[in-house]
Amino acid sequence: MEKVVLAFSGGLDTTVCVKLLEEEYNLEVITACVDVGQGEEEIKKAEKVSKEIGSSKHYTIDARDEFANDYISRGIKANAEYEGYPLSTALARPLIAQKIIEVADKENAVAIAHGCTGKGNDQFRFEAVILAMSDYQIIAPIRDLNLTRTEEQEYARKHGLPLSSDKTYSIDENIWGRSIEGDLLEDPKNEAPEEIYAWTSSWEDAKDTPQKVAIEFEEGIPIAINGEMMGLIDLIGESNKIAGENGVGRVDMIENRIIGLKSREIYEVPGAKLLLAAHKALEELVLTTDEIRFKEYMSTLYADLVYRAMWQEPLREDLDQAIDQMQRRVSGKVVLKLFKGSIAPLTRESDFSLHDIEEISFEDKETDQREVEGMIKHHALQAAKYQKLNR
Hints:
- It is a single chain.
- By secondary structure, the chain is of the alpha/beta class.
- The protein has helices at 12-23, 40-52, 64-78, 89-107, 122-133, 141-144, 149-158, 232-245, 270-286, 289-307, 314-327, 357-360, 372-379, 381-390, and strands at residues 3-7, 28-35, 57-62, 81-82, 85-86, 111-113, 137-139, 170-174, 177-181, 211-218, 221-225, 228-229, 250-256, 262-268, 332-339, 342-349.
- Helix 2 (40-52) links the parallel strand 2 and strand 3 (57-62).
- Helix 1 (12-23) packs across helix 7 and helix 4 (89-107) crosses helix 5.
- The protein is elongated.
């Protein structure tokens, strides 16, 4: 039989896909789970389920460090937030797709499969990379057969496939964030229950005293937290813990999906919110006015490209180069205060600071204040002429 490599999580969709690929497509199924920080329990579940349903082979690929150093780092430097939330799932998908291609190459497969439905974003994110970086046939059984979740559950019971009875919601998790959707969350009229959150305290249960956190950066990348140097993946974990305990990082939003649907989405991104707040605060100190304004535009464009599955777009690579050039001076330390869901910068310092304490001081005598008078007269000259004509 010809082989297909299935991007596998062990959830309902991908579990059903294994049997569908065997029965409907007559293919030998090799499952592959790419670890981007979804937790040891989820990784072991994928291995266990794959074995139970009789896949011919299962791969577990540890890509956590690569995800942090080659993808999240870019997201931090770009301040990549889509409609107000730091991108996490969207950043991970291109890496996962690339790793699945590598498995397919190794196994001499004829196709790559995924368990995405026809309504979400992930189908775009997986397939855009696969189409750009390989010549593999792509199979999407859930979408191709137009299956509903209820039909999937019935199919699983009929074929004796293991079902996760403990999960009501659809959850995607990596080291940069958690996304939660489905069930009662689909209706925006329903308040999100506290049970869906795993990384963050509610504002009511968060710490009752403010906490100060110091983040140090080198060329736009965080390198230390509270004076302790550590690798990015560990620093993200510590940031998730600190920010989560202080009620930082919950996002409940109506998101505009790629295909045009509005979807109620909930995210937990405590560490991302903390690190991006520190990064932006440092940029305010070291970048020029024009750089900051253009960076805001680039950040929006960058996040939009990543969200819309355009990781392979050369403009994304162009933006990375421009951002890297700008980030050479984004080095220094920021101290922030966290309290009951809020983040506020307290201090900023950098060897590349464009802030001059002597020039800005009200006690400065060296700068002759009278020199600015001529500048003011010409500052809004055309607007003044326009208003005179009106009068």
